[in-house]
Specification:
2 copies of one chain form a homodimer. Chain A is of the alpha+beta class and about 100 residues long. In chain A, about 30% of the residues are buried. The first copy, chain A, starts with a strand and ends with a strand. Chain A has a single domain, classed as Alpha-Beta Plaits (2-Layer Sandwich). The first copy, chain A, is built from 3 helices and 4 strands. A 4-stranded antiparallel β-sheet of chain A has the order 2-3-1-4. Chains A and B meet through β1, α1, β2, β3 and β4 of A and β1, α1, β2, β3 and β4 of B.
């Protein structure tokens, strides 16, 4: 299992619309191959900066299957207009979970 | 509850020592006021870049109480030598958890 962590900076004043868009889009992720969870976090340092954290079985489930799908276009259609710039995305795997 | 998310880039070739240092340091976090969890993630894009994710009850539990403690100095003494540059830290709160 891996995490997709997308840092998304949105245009000021669009928080409410962006968060509603993420909620509306959740079923697109939930039905995606290998997608096991989704969480939206907002940074305390900047209310216009969010982290979208999505759990995938494999990297390719995100980068190939989801990004190549019609549902990805639908996702971007729901929230893309609020982006201040392209999201910065990385993927991680857990190497230690002490407590 | 909030998350501290520290992006830590380490010097090439120090992964094993760094990961062992984090494990050794875990009790310092576990006994810190308001600390409820700790996870080390490694990015798939760059094996020298990690995310340390720590759960705190409040922002101040991290930024005031922990950073002002002797245990913080002990933490940095265990892992600081492996850092390639100062970690980039942000704090987040969960605004949506669809599934």
């Amino acid at each position: 299992m891996i995490y997709e962590i997308a840092q998304i900076e949105i245009r000021p004043g669009t928080q409410e619309a962006f968060e509603a868009g993420v909620q509306t889009a959740a079923p697109l992720f939930q039905r995606a191959k290998g997608c096991h969870g989704m969480q939206l976090q907002q940074t305390l340092e900047d209310a216009n900066t969010y982290l979208l954290v999505v759990q995938w079985e494999t990297l390719e489930d995100h980068t190939v299957h989801f990004r190549g799908s019609e549902d990805f276009k639908a996702w971007r259609a729901l929230v893309g207009e609020y982006f201040a710039k392209p999201p910065v995305v990385c993927h991680t795997t857990t190497v230690a979970n002490p407590f």
